[in-house]
Amino acid sequence: KICIVLHRRDLRLGDNSAVVSAIESGRLLIPIFVWNRQESEACDAGSASCWWLHHSLLELGNQYAKQGGELFFFREPTQSVIERLIREHDVEAVYWNRRYEPDAIKQDSGLKKSLKDAGIEVHSFNGSLLREPWEVETKQGDPYQVFTPFWKNVLASIDPDKPLSAPEAISFEKVRIESCKLDDFNLLPKLDWADSFHEYWTPGEQGAHESLSNFIRNGIDDYKGERDFPAKSGTSRMSPHLHFGEISPRQICHAVQVHLNRKRKDNGQPGADTYLSEIGWREFGYHILYHFPHTTEKSLKPKFDDFPWDNNAKDLKKWQQGMTGYPIVDAGMRELWETGWMHNRVRMIVGSFLAKDLLQNWKSGAEWFWDTLVDADLANNTLGWQWVAGSGADASPYFRVFNPVLQGERYDPSGKYIRQWIPELSELPDKWIHKPWEAPKDVLKDAGISLGETYPEPLVDHQEAREAALAIYEKIK
Ligand code: FAD
C-alpha cells in the first residue's frame, strides 16, 4: 500500500498534518515536489523566492534522506506526475496541505476531483494557518474586512493543541522512481545578485526554528518598543520561513506560549501579544485573499480603480534602484536588493512614497517586491500594498501620506540605518542625514557629498507631491 505526499508550501516535517496522516495510514510514502511554471501564480515565484525555494528544498530532501528516503522532484504538470505514479506504483492515496491563492485553489480542486473520480483517496489539511479562512466570520456570516474584530475572533478560538512532532520513523516506497534533479528546476539566479543572501538567511526547517528560538530568547519581550526601528534587530525575520512553510504559525504560537509560561505570564505580555497580533495580520491577509481574490489585481474599494496613476518608467526605476534622493526610501530599497528583505516600517514608507509621492500604481511596487523579496507572498504583499495605497481592507486612510523625512527622523534618529545602506551619506551629520538637500554647502563638502553626483537630489518635492496626491484622492473619494 503506497501513498504520495505532495509538498508545496509546507517544506517541513514537524507539525505537518499531511505527512503525519500519511504515516499513520500505514502506507509507504512517496514524497514529491513539482515545479511547473505554467501551473499557478503561487508557483510563479520571483527571483529571490526561487533562491530561497532551492535551498529549502535541498534541506527538506536532506531530512528525508536522513530517514532513509528521498524527496522526488518533477517538472511535468502535477496531475500528469501523480497519474504516472499511480499507474507505475500501487498508489492508493494522495496527501497534501492546502493552498489559498485563487489559481492554486482552482488547480487543487480540479486535481482532487479527478483523483477521486479515479478512485484515489485524497486527504487535504490546513498546514499554514491558525484558522481556515472560511471558518472565521462576522456575526452576520460575512468575511471580515477589519483586522481587530477578525483577530479577536481568531484568538478566541485557536486550537490550543500542541503542534505535531516531527515523525521519528518513516517507511518509504523503495522501488525506483523516475524523476528529475533539484538543479533541473534552475531556481538559482543567473546573476551573482543573490550571493549575499547566505549572509542573512538560513533557509530550511532547522534555520526557521533557530531564528525563532533566537528571537524568543533575545527579542520578543522588547518587540513592542523595538519593532519599528529598522536599525535594530527588533523583529523576528520569520516571514520567508513562514511563507515556505518551514515552520507553522501553530508552532510559533506554541513556542511563544511556552516562553510566557516559563516567565509565568499567563495573561500575556506586551511584546508577545503584539508579536502574535502580527502573526494575526498574516492570517488576515489570507482571509482577505480567500474571500476577495480579485484584490491581487483590483482595489478592494472599487472607486480606487479609477485612480489616474502617473506610470512614469523613469521614476519607477529610480525607486527600484534606491536613487530617489530621500535617504530612508533609498536605504530601504537597497536593503531589499542586498538581503531580499526590508523592514516593515520601511516597506510602508517606500510603498507610500511610490503610490502617493510618485503616483505610481501600487501594482508596479507589488511586482518589484514579488521579484526581489525572499518572503514574497501573494496574500501579504497584496494586503501590504493595498494598505499603503489606501485602497484595501482596513487600509491606511487615503489622506495618510508618510513624510519620508519625519519618518526617518522618528524611526532612525541617529541615521544608523541610512549609513548602513547608503555609504555615500555616512559622513553627513545626524541633523541632515534625512534631508541632505537642506545641509549647508560646506557641510556637504566636508562629508564628501556632491548632490546630483554622489547622491541624487530629491526626485520630487514631498510637500508638493503630497498636495497633488491629496487633491486626486479627494476627487475620487
Ligand atoms: P515580524 O515583525 O517579526 O512579524 C512576525 C510575522 O508576522 C512575520 O514574519 C509575518 O509573517 C507576519 N507579519 C508581520 N507584519 C505583517 C503585516 N503587516 N502583514 C502581514 N503579515 C505580517 N509580508 C510577507 O510575508 N510577504 C510579503 O510579500 C509582504 N509584502 C509587504 C508589502 C508591503 C507594502 C508592506 C507594507 C508589508 C508587506 N509584508 C509582507 C508585511 C511585513 O512587512 C512583513 O511580513 C515583515 O516585515 C516580515 O518581517 P518579520 O518576519 O521580521 O516580521
From TrEMBL:
EC number of this enzyme: 4.1.99.3
Source domain of life: Bacteria
Site annotation Electron transfer via tryptophanyl radical: residues: 309, 362, 385
Matches recorded under PROSITE patterns: DNA_PHOTOLYASES_1_1, PHR_CRY_ALPHA_BETA
Reported cofactor(s): FAD; (6R)-5,10-methylene-5,6,7,8-tetrahydrofolate
UniProt family annotation: Belongs to the DNA photolyase family.
Binding site for FAD: 223, 235-239, 275, 375-377
SUPFAM superfamilies found in the cross-reference section: Cryptochrome/photolyase FAD-binding domain, Cryptochrome/photolyase, N-terminal domain
Protein's UniProt name: Deoxyribodipyrimidine photo-lyase
Cofactor remark from the record: Binds 1 FAD per subunit.
Pfam families documented for this protein: DNA_photolyase, FAD_binding_7
Lineage of the organism: Bacteria, Pseudomonadati, Planctomycetota, Planctomycetia, Planctomycetales
Keywords: Chromophore, FAD, Flavoprotein, Lyase
Record GO biological process: photoreactive repair; response to light stimulus
Catalytic activity as recorded in UniProt: cyclobutadipyrimidine (in DNA) = 2 pyrimidine residues (in DNA)
InterPro entries in UniProt: Crypto/Photolyase_FAD-like_sf, Crypto/Photolyase_N_sf, Cryptochr/Photolyase_FAD-bd, Cryptochrome/DNA_photolyase_1, DNA_photolyase_1_CS_C, DNA_photolyase_N, Rossmann-like_a/b/a_fold
Photolyase/cryptochrome alpha/beta domain mapped to chain residues: 1-130
Flavoprotein found in the keyword field: yes
Gene it is expressed from: phr
A single MF term (Gene Ontology): deoxyribodipyrimidine photo-lyase activity
Organism field: Polystyrenella longa
